[in-house]
Amino acid sequence: MAKQLTQIQAVDDVLLATELELILGKDLQAVEAALVASLDASKNAFAPRTIVTGFVVGHHNDDVVIDIGYKSEGVVPSEEFVEAERQVGSKVQVMIVETKPTGGLVLSKRQADLQIGWNQVLAGNKEGDRVKGKVIRKIKGGLLVDIGVPVFLPASQVDLRRAPDVGEYIGQEVEAEIIKIDIERKNIVVSRRKVLEEERKKNRESLVKQLQVGDLREGVVKNVTDFGAFIDLGGLDGLLHITDMSWGRVSHPTEVVHIGQKIEVVVLDYDAERNRISLGLKQKTRNPWEDIGERYPIGSTHSGEVVNLMTYGAFIRLEDGIEGLVHVSEMSWTRQVSHPNEILKVGEKVTAMILEIDHEKQEISLGMKQAEQNPWENIKDKFPVGAKVSGKVKNMTNYGAFIEIAPGIEGLLHVNDISWTKKVANPATEFTKDQDVDCVVLEIDRERQRISLGMKQLTEDPWTKEIPAKLQKNTVLDGKVTKVTNFGVFVEILDGLEGLLHVSEMGGVDPATLQPAQEIKVKVLNVEADTRKIGLSMKGV
Q1: Which domains are seen in the chain, by residue range?
Q2: Which residues, at least 6 apart from 70, have a Cβ–Cβ distance to it below 8 Å?
Q3: What's the pTM value of the predicted model, to 2 decimals?
């Protein structure tokens, strides 16, 4: 009823104005035209897509009832309002979505807000202008940013480098440049990258003017490669080479830096023509090599940690930035070390002596065995020549067996010193590995760290008495062929003792007709004790 009274009052006002114009002598036809125009304007005021001002007059279920001065009231879902706007009497702007034939209205506050925001953005901004807004959510291809209306920020325009996950920007306030406005589709595209590029260009120009070798600069790790890391100094990128990261050993840059890390570096060199900057991190601290000779004098002993094993030796860290090399030949007095991993492992604590320092190359030679007493210094006192020793067979070759007579101390038992009478071609026919054997020390070479051992020397030489006594001239013996040659055959006549049956003493028998292991009878021709030779004959047997 109130609305109808309002409309009647509006018509009355028009009639009153018309009467006044008649009184003033206006044309009646003009008055009629004015009346029609006024009625059309009243009708257009409630056309769809029109934004009107109304008042909250009540609530119905989940809707807010709005009076916009129309013949009937409209409703808007309460979810489109904030709490304060839902109060009865609140003044709000809404959009007429639809006028129903029954006279009812479908209203929308959300669409009105979008249209108002759109109008405000267009009124105050154009392509190329900068705007600020909050990232509200992630959508396909990029982000939505609220600058009064939602605008599209493509993923490629979020940062200088493509971000792995643009969702990290949700909730952040960003500044961007408008790069496209589509009025018909009500679509705006913005770029944060353009803003960053412009700022980077300004920073670069400012940085170039200020940059000096030796400056300390803060930057952000932009990229990491096998040879170093690129640091963004805020407009210019500099290279922090792996060799300038630490005074110590760095296997890969990721051991020191990671992408996105803030880091303070020293400017080592700047090539203005090529826009190249060399940066350093280790230069922020004292060079540990400056007084290396005072802290690590030649001959001094120090403890360290094994940090790397190579085929030729082991690297020992004495302190941060100071490493030394222990060559395999300097690891043990007694062991023949083929590879450091035979006695060392990474992370192990060891003691070593400083052998040599190359200040120019910044290299230190270390010795582990020198930090211990050399067991070969008093080897003659411990194992005098002629002493009887016991040990285990550790290794065998075709020329002899190596016997360990003390931890790490091995001697060579040559094949010629195994037996007085037996010709040993290979020690493997006489011994097994780790077999216990008794020997006699024959010779010691302390400089070459060698010991010669003998086994036959444990017994009296049978060639002095026993063999000449047993093998009298013309004594007939049973023998066994051991070897056949073109000049005769060798015959075993006693356990391991051989004599030569020369072809001239075979009585016309062809040596080729005899076979190894064949048994024959022979007689002793002669025994030469000094040359350890026995002559045999088949004649007259």
Answers
A1: 2-113 (2.40.50.140), 125-196 (2.40.50.140), 211-284 (2.40.50.140), 292-349 (2.40.50.140), 379-458 (2.40.50.140), 466-537 (2.40.50.140)
A2: 3, 46, 105
A3: 0.45
